Amino acid sequence: MIRFFDVFLAIFGLIFLSPLIVLIAIVGWFDNRSPFFRQKRVGRHKKGFIIVKFRTMKVDTAHIASHLANRSAITPLGNFLRSTKLDELPQLWNVLKGDMSLVGPRPCLFNQHELIKEREKRDIFGVRPGITGLAQVNEIDMSTPTLLAETDARMMQDLTVRTYCRYLFMTLMGKGRGDRVQ
């Protein structure tokens, strides 16, 4: 049932928000000549997939977890996109493809060994990673791997259509700020 909502809402979002996506891509082109950011992430069953987001950091920024990046790497447009969560819009394509869900644990990088270990203990990799979830609306990010994995496990254990909709609504209403940056 949740996959049905994922597909329906991703199609709806991509169609309805396409003018905004195009506008952000154009502004992003002028901001740093590379509006989209692609990165390999850990997906369901620990299989890799390429996540697509709007670029919020300078092109030459190292591919590391956001909480390890330097704040000076964030572009002015990137700061706006992060604060409004608009940088996540291209991930609707990942949801449509089946790499992700709208609600689930945020996909980590393959070099985040501590988080991967904590998630393996709790069987988090049995589900699709998501754009938002319980951790995100409570401002828990990848800088606290054990707490994040525990929160992800609690979310997945209690996930229903109702809580799925609640996390989406909370995210759309501005709850949570995303990953911290140094």
Helix proportion of residues, in percent?
40-55%
* Helix/strand order: HHEEHHEHEHHH
Q: What's the rounded overall pLDDT mean?
A: 92
Distance between the amino and carboxyl termini: 39 Å
Shape: globular
Number of helices: 8
Adjacency order of strands in the biggest sheet: 1-2
By DSSP, the count of extended strands is 4
**Count of domain modules:** 1
How much of the residues is beta strand, in percent?
Answer: 5-15%
Question: What descriptors fit this protein?
Answer:
8 helices, 11% strand, mainly alpha, two-stranded antiparallel ribbon, globular, two-stranded parallel ribbon, 182 residues
Please summarize what this structure is.
The chain has 182 residues and is mainly α. The protein has one domain (2-172).
Structure in words:
The protein is mostly helical and 182 residues long. The chain has one domain (2-172). Helices cover 47% and strands 11% of the residues. It contains eight helices and four strands; from the N terminus they run H-H-E-E-H-H-E-H-E-H-H-H. The protein has helices at 2-16, 18-32, 76-84, 91-97, 113-121, 134-137, 145-158, 161-172, and strands spanning 36-42, 48-54, 101-103, 130-132. The strands form two sheets. It has a two-stranded antiparallel ribbon with strand order 1-2. It has a two-stranded parallel sheet with strand order 3-4. Strand 3, helix 5 and strand 4 (130-132) form a beta-alpha-beta unit. The termini are far apart. The model has no long low-confidence stretch (mean pLDDT 92).
